[in-house]
Specification:
Length: 346
Amino acid sequence: MSEKQYEVTELLGDGISAEIRTSVHAVADALPEEYVFDTIDLTYENRKKGARPLYDKAIESMTRTGRGLKYPTETVEESPNAVLRKLAKFSVIHRPVSTIPGVATNFAKKIDLDIIRIATGGTYDDPGQMIGDYAAASLRVVDRQTCEHAARYAFSIAARDRKLLASSSKYTIQRVTDGLFESIVDEVAKDIQFAGQITHRRELFDALLAKLIMRPEDYNVILVLNEYGDFLSDLAGGLIGSLGLGASVSLSFDEKSRVRLAMFDAAHGTAPDIAGKSMANPTAILLAFSLLLAHIGEPRSADALKKSLFDCLEAGETTGDLGGKLGTMELTQAVIGRLKNHLKAG
Ligand code: ATP
């Protein structure tokens, strides 16, 4: 029996969800800690019978455990992602993007980024309105508290490896809104004792896009407002050659800026065309699980999982979507086979 036990809420979805869930459970069983899953069935079959109580149960469980692993869900009547975002009050999204071995890309350099995006406000909460019939305008909101939550979280991510943190916006033009964002980041930097070990710099967002492509090694953690984060996440996905192999964390915070709830998921959808055929690539959900492990304070297991997975991909041991020959569980077993060595080395 392992001494350490963690409870994880998991939100079961549609399509390939069941298969990639089996992969996560097999990996969890191979780790030195014990993982107990509280499963909430968010399959469309079950949601059809009455979705609201299921969402309430999901939030209740994630609030208790502090963490959730969400499998892809089908959007039919409602978007489960949108409902959960609203109920859980997710305000920040953390999207790591790093070069994935074995994935073809036009970009020759390596990148290893943690994009921390404020996921509310900006211009996205307001569709805008017409001014007479000659123009249209929309309101852009930058909320002080959300900036503080995001900044504290971003510094905590940077502190894990004493990395570089760039906050980026158009503060010379959007002086009030982006200016407020940057000034809060500065305040948080001063307030946090470990900030001295982290190099924080402000960068204009347009320049950052160019520099990121020319010198990606100069970037680790990037903290941005909503729209910038939206564009940057897809750009980074394009650089690594895939929008679907990534994972992300949605975060909500308490009034003291501590993470109240973190929900981890894969970037891809339900892939109904390959569901039930053992063809699903578990890479993204295993990356999501690795992020969860890092979040709960098990960096050794988190790193070992990521390294084992990347070793497999580098060796061409992968599923058909990446040109390999393995099925979902064969790849999972290949990952598990490499775990022990990486756990020993870590
Ligand atoms: P949804 O409506 O849930 O977004 P979708 O099929 O429209 O589903 P994705 O699930 O992102 O969108 O799939 C896009 C394509 O990528 C599909 O051909 C799908 O089979 C493939 N795909 C997505 N995820 C995976 C995966 N984990 N492994 C293998 N192929 C995948």
